[in-house]
Write a structure and sequence with these properties.
964 residues, alpha/beta, ten-stranded mixed beta sheet, three-stranded antiparallel beta sheet, 26 strands
């Protein structure tokens, strides 16, 4: 995209200036809606705990490649108009048109789009990108733009409060209006006098912590009153405030209260009826630390706490002791987080206007007091070509398109307060970012915690912000720089040069990140050159937000900068059922790493069974890191998260919404080290969460069952003892003997069955007669045979002995079991194939060669399973579902819907029915790993949420605990 220069006519009259829009995806003469296939769906949403239908709208229209989850969330969250009326939106076309046409009209009105051709192309390109889930605006845009409601487009707000009762009460009011609109706000309370200072009347001040109680109660009330989503807020206090110790320990003390009340029998679970009596639970707390304080911690010196009115030191504390209290409180309850004040303000483009003192609730937006930021995020996986290279040129073009639209929105946007509106219009802060980084890194064979992964992420982030500021400089030449630019021009250009210098320090490792980095270098050269000439349209351009609800709208596997949550996902089906699905990114990654189709299929089967890659057949240990996730057996180490944040932070106007997860056994010292390293590595903010550090875990069902007996009742249980009875085989029984070879070692398996075909006896011959190995095989065979006759199910043995790894191992001569990790692995796979029914084997992931071929070619399940599975695979692959043959009750050959699986060799091993008690990926992770995932239950639909940045998001209905 380039500026129009205005061709001169004979009368020397210039054409009107405007942004010349470049065609990226669309075809001339074809509307984006006409290039996709549309289908009608029924959206019915229930609370799985109560069975209550909480939403129902039938016959909604979406493209056939949109998943059920995405269409459900868009229908329930973003469609406007009363249900059951003609004014209710019922198609994605209506939603996109409502937003895009408003942007186009404003673009023409305010001089961004000079010609009708540019306006039409702008409309079509935006529509295509939204339709194909290439990017999404933040939720308030979808809530409000094009409706009779105020046109609020911002998700993030920063407020200001001074040391007066008028200001404090105004804080409560302004927060309430922001929460009511479904957004979040943050502020710094450090201007309020401490409880150690005097009032002019001679009394002692209350201190900021006391005023936090009122604001907390207000947020809790609005949250409970049925707002668009839960209130989200951030409270910041400077480390030199005299009440800092009280602030640090506030939520930790409340957590002690929760424990005491729980032990006394009160309902203190998340969402419980008694938890509302606990204070300070509706805000994230952060301490704003300075370089002076952090150096005092390093040196073991004292640090002065200063009076708010005079600035004089009124108390001295040991810096290490206070830092230890911060780490201990975070260890106990995950609060407070840390914000690094000097780093934040060193990258501030508007220091002449004022310092940055606070952030939004998720800590990614950091700017002036009484300001706001609207967000948009790009889906990185949409820029990965079929040959697994990143299309950096198209990525940069889309960034410029989106940043143009975001700036246009400020021209027509409404704001909750006049002061916020004035600051935002004067400084025009934007927050473009991305989602699906974790999936992109996995698909390209990069470990999240690896030098290659960090290099690629840094290069992409640098290109993101460079392209955004380049477009901002171009816009400044067309419609003028932001109003506050003149007084901050030198500082703004200095920060641009800092970004450019940071880009020069990136060390690329392969052609992919080198190609992205070359374009980023060119972008930053343009930024510095154009900015010096025209200035900039926007004071800020980029952040990395949680992308909770909009991440589901774009069908993203991962949110924001986060790694993948787990390797196996929960997925809803068209007919209302559900499946557990191995991420489709995994087969693509395995193919990129050089594995063959048979190996890929075996590894995917293993992941489907176990939820991790440890000891997966044929997977090299050096490739394990590519599949490391946020949770599970190979969870990414805390410093891996910090290092990834540090790689991307120098290329962002704002900061990063992310929580560093630590295991339950992590120590206070380890949390202190994470906070210390965050400062040294140049982060702007950091939050941590230690597993099970909070009492409010979703255990209400278990507690209700255990506490069902009335108080004081003596529960007498009748004890019945059951003993197994041996069922011997008849004297004459059917047997079959199988010869086999595993890794070149030969053996024989004889299996005898009961008259009703149940396995009752096995004999294994392996090794020379009389050898130790032969004796062990005889003893093992006898032990298994007796156990089978006492009723131990064969599937129990199959579960225990398949995937057992020892030599000899390798290729076999059995066409149904091509690879075996050991003799035991082969034997029990063979027994499963011979004696277990298909449904049981399918659950265990064991199929014959014929079944695997049938699943790949015909999807041969039962008729009911085929309908659900085929629709799901079509949605998941983003291609139309094939026509079914009603005569056969099976699905005919699938050419498009399963193309990704067939090419990868993963087959149908990636998909299997989910258990009835699993309703989200977090619950599926718990079932596979046997370990609780720390996350709240959704207050709307009862589903367990999962982390999204420093917030949580519900896979069931899209509700979030944050502001994205």
């Amino acid at each position: 995209m380039t500026e129009t220069t205005g061709a001169r006519t004979g009368a020397r009259k210039s054409a009107p200036k405007g942004v010349q829009i470049e065609r990226i995806f669309t075809t001339e003469g074809v509307h984006p809606y006409d290039a996709v296939t549309w289908e009608k769906r029924d959206v019915v949403q229930q609370n799985w705990k109560t069975g209550e239908t909480i939403f129902e709208q039938r016959g909604v229209e979406f493209p056939d490649f949109w998943s059920i989850n995405a269409s459900t969330i868009v229908t329930t969250k973003y469609f406007r108009g009363a249900l059951g009326t003609e004014r209710r939106e019922s198609s994605l076309r209506q939603l996109i048109d409502r937003v895009v046409l408003t942007y186009v009209a404003a673009g023409k009105k305010h001089g961004y789009l000079a010609t009708e051709e540019d306006a039409t192309l702008f409309e079509h390109e935006l529509t295509h990108c939204l339709l194909h889930q290439i990017f999404s605006f933040n939720s308030p845009v979808w809530f409000n733009v094009g409706t009779p409601s105020p046109q609020q487009v911002s998700a993030c707000f920063i407020l200001a409060v001074d040391d007066s009762m008028d200001s404090i009460l105004n804080w409560y009011k302004e927060e309430g209006f922001i929460f009511k609109g479904g957004s979040g706000a943050g502020l710094n309370l450090s201007r309020i006098r401490s409880s150690k200072e005097l009032l002019s009347s001679g009394g002692t001040a209350s201190g900021p912590v006391s005023f936090m109680r009122g604001a907390d109660a207000s947020a809790g009330t609005i949250k409970s009153g049925g707002a668009t989503r839960r209130a989200a807020k951030m409270v910041v206090l400077d480390v030199d405030h005299p009440d800092i110790e009280e602030f640090v320990e506030t939520k930790a003390r409340e957590e002690d209260k929760i424990r005491a009340l729980r032990d006394a029998g009160f309902d203190m679970d998340l969402g419980g009826k008694d938890i509302v009596s606990v204070q300070y639970q509706n805000a994230n707390n952060s301490v704003r630390v300075s370089d002076e304080f952090m150096r005092a911690v390093e040196d073991g010196r004292t640090f002065g706490l200063r009076a708010r009115m005079t600035g004089e030191v009124i108390d001295e504390i040991d810096a290490r002791t206070l830092f230890g209290k911060i780490a201990k409180a975070a260890w106990e309850c995950a609060d407070p987080g840390i914000q690094y004040d000097d780093t934040i303000n060193d990258w501030h483009t508007n220091p002449e206007t004022g310092r940055i003192t606070a952030s939004n609730p998720c800590s990614e937006y950091m700017s002036l007091d009484n300001s706001s930021c609207n967000l948009a995020s790009l889906n990185l996986l949409k820029f990965l070509r079929d040959d697994d290279t990143f299309d950096a040129a198209t990525f940069a073009k889309v960034v410029e398109l989106v940043i143009t639209a975001m700036d246009i929105s400020i021209c027509f946007a409404d704001f909750p307060t006049e002061s916020i509106g004035e600051t935002t219009r004067d400084y025009r802060q934007l927050g473009i970012g991305y989602a699906n980084l974790g999936a992109l890194l996995m698909a390209t064979g990069h470990g999240y915690d690896s030098e290659g992964g960090r290099s690629l992420a840094a290069s992409i982030t640098s290109l993101l912000t460079g392209a955004a500021y380049r477009r901002s400089a171009q816009l400044a030449g067309i419609v003028g720089p932001y109003a506050g630019y003149a007084r901050n021009a030198e500082a703004h250009q200095r920060v641009m040069r800092k970004h450019q210098a940071a880009n020069d320090t990136i060390r690329t490792l392969d052609e992919m990140d080198s190609g992205v980095h070359r374009l980023a270098t060119k972008a930053w050269d343009d930024v510095v050159r154009l900015g010096a000439r025209s200035g900039f349209r926007n004071a800020q351009a980029s952040v990395l937000a949680p992308t909770g609800t909009i991440g589901f709208m774009m069908d993203c596997d991962t949110t924001g900068i986060e790694p993948d949550f787990s390797l196996v996902k929960f997925k809803k089906l068209v007919g209302g059922g559900s499946m557990q699905i191995v991420n489709l990114t995994i087969p693509r990654a395995l193919k990129k790493l050089g594995y063959q189709n048979e190996q890929i299929e075996a590894i995917v089967e293993y992941i489907a069974e176990n939820g991790h890659v440890i000891d997966a057949p044929g997977l090299k240990t050096e490739h394990y890191e590519v599949f490391d996730c946020a949770m599970g057996a190979r969870a990414i180490q805390p410093m891996g998260h910090v290092r990834m944040m540090a790689a991307c932070q120098p290329f962002l106007s704002g900061a990063i919404s992310k929580t560093v997860n630590l295991p339950e056994e992590a120590t206070v010292e380890e949390i202190a080290e994470v906070y210390q390293q965050g400062w040294k590595l140049g982060l702007k903010a950091l939050a941590v969460y230690r597993d099970n550090c909070k009492v409010g875990q979703p255990l209400s069902d278990a507690k209700a069952k255990s506490g069902s007996a009335g108080a004081g009742e003596a529960v007498v249980e009748k004890v019945v003892e059951y003993r197994p009875v041996r069922k011997r085989l008849p004297k004459r029984r059917n047997s079959q003997t199988t010869s086999f070879s595993v890794g070149g070692a030969e053996g024989y398996l004889t299996a005898s069955s009961y008259p009703d075909d149940g396995l009752g006896e096995i004999f294994l011959k392996f090794g020379k007669q009389g050898s130790t190995l032969a004796g062990l095989m005889d003893a093992f065979s006898l032990a298994v045979s007796v156990a089978l006759q006492y009723g131990v199910p064969l599937e129990t043995y199959v579960e225990k002995f398949t995937n057992l790894r020892f030599e000899p191992a390798g290729l076999t001569d059995d066409p149904d079991v091509r690879m075996a990790q050991s003799i035991m692995d082969y034997v029990f796979r063979r027994l499963a194939l011979d004696f277990l029914d298909f449904e049981t084997r399918d659950y265990l992931g064991i199929h014959s060669a014929e079944e695997r071929a049938r699943q790949l070619e015909t999807g041969s399940y039962t008729a009911d399973e085929s309908e659900d599975l085929e629709d799901e695979l079509a949605n998941f692959s983003q291609t139309p579902a094939p026509k079914r043959d009603p005569q056969q009750g099976q699905v005919p050959a699938v050419e498009n819907a399963r193309a990704a699986e067939v090419k990868s060799g993963a087959g149908a091993a990636a998909v299997r029915p989910a258990d009835a008690d699993v309703h989200s990926s977090a619950e599926l992770f718990e079932k596979l790993q046997g370990k609780a995932a720390d996350a709240p239950m959704c207050m709307t639909c009862g589903t367990k949420m999962r982390p999204a940045g420093s917030c949580y998001v519900c896979e069931g209905c899209g509700s979030t605990s944050g502001c994205s």
